[in-house]
Amino acid sequence: TMQKAWQYTQRGDPNAVLQLKRIPIPSEIPHNSSKLFIKVSYAAFNSGTPFLISFVPTWFRKTPAIPELEFSGEVLKVGSKVREGISVGTRVYGFLSLKSNILYGEGTLCQYIVAESDLVGIVPDNLSLEEVAGLSGVGCTALQTMQISRLKEGDSVLINGASGGVGLMMVQFARLRVGESGRVIGICSSKNEQLVKSVGADEVIDYQKYESLWMHLNQVFGDNQLDEIIDIVGTEGTFENSPLYLKEGKQYLVLGSMNSNESAWKFIKSMGSFLRNSVQPRWLGGTPRDFRFFSSFPTLRSLDELSEMSREGKIKCFVDSVFPMEDALMGFERVKSKRATGKVLINVRE
Predict the structure, then answer these.
(1) Best CA proximity match to 123, nearest among 79, 85, 150, 173
(2) pLDDT tens-digit series, residues 91-143
(3) Dihedral Cα 25, 30, 134, 299, nearest 10 deg
């Protein structure tokens, strides 16, 4: 009747506020529902979680709260209205809603969870629970980004932040979109160059080599401008100066800002910058390129498509590291380092 779970009751650094506790296993799921009772095998870290723990006030959310939203595991019980293809014993991966985390304190850094069946995908037979534990987040982000992307076969695309979990998935989707005749250029550190090239990048730019990234981009692409830029890092100055290396009428997609997770002030500053770039007209000094801030969320349709693409070997979710349940705090440190190449997982099962 009891399970292990990481919990926190006040905001602060994860190392300071998270505690491994024994708490009751979730109560029975309603029979007349679309819910699943799942034994968790792996929980996956997301880059925004340290921000949620550190800066979201406890009066705004339910406490005690269990962190993290992504998981993989095995279905133990089902409601009568679950999605087709799922029954007791089905291996699944997916997401808990942010709403359930904020309002009810539900998370995946525990041994048992209750999840909505339309927020889970079915694990392909040829993949392990470890391989898909972080697929829903990075996969839906890349898949849904491609759905609003204007890229076509033969185009050139620059992906800033190409060696992280989202970046590696984005390179794979971009490669599929632009084809062999197109160009995929990734920005990351040189130590990850071969990894990024192995998943589809033609070229890699080491951002650490240049004092000004946008000035280097101007030198390289000024005469042969890009068709699209997908910015996962939110590097300052790259959009404002993008007319130097991004074709007129083309799209600059921003998926987040790595620095915004460091403090509430940096988060507010980043959101203000995104808003200004989105609405400031050109005649008032706005950058003459199409800026779009995009945030995704797992959907049943996206999860089914990711399962099929993974089964066929078209995409792969990379795992950076796996920590045992007792060492979850080390996992948070790895995420906060911004050096992870792929997803950071917690092995809940063992």
Answers:
(1) 85
(2) 999 999 989 999 999 999 999 999 999 999 999 999 999 999 999 999 999 99
(3) -160
φ, ψ (nearest 5 deg) of residue 144: -75, -30
End-to-end CA distance of the chain: 18
Where helices occur in the chain by DSSP H, the ranges are 14-17, 49-55, 98-104, 129-132, 135-148, 165-178, 193-198, 213-221, 264-279, 300-311, 328-336
CB 237 within 8 A of CB 287: no
Residue type for position 248: E
Percent of the chain with pLDDT over 70: 91
Q: 3-class SS at 243?
A: helix
CA dist 309 and 102 (Å) reads 32
Mean pLDDT of the chain: 91
> How many other CB atoms are there within 10 angstroms of residue 312's CB atom?
10
pTM of the predicted model as reported, rounded to 2 decimal places: 0.92
Q: How many CA atoms lie within 13 A of 124 on its CB side?
A: 19
- Tens of pLDDT, residue by residue over 28-68, are 898 899 999 999 999 999 988 888 888 888 888 899 999 99
Within 10 Å of residue 134's Cβ, how many Cβ atoms? 28
Strand 156-160 relative to strand 183-188: parallel, antiparallel, unpaired?
parallel
Supply 162's token pair: 């190409």
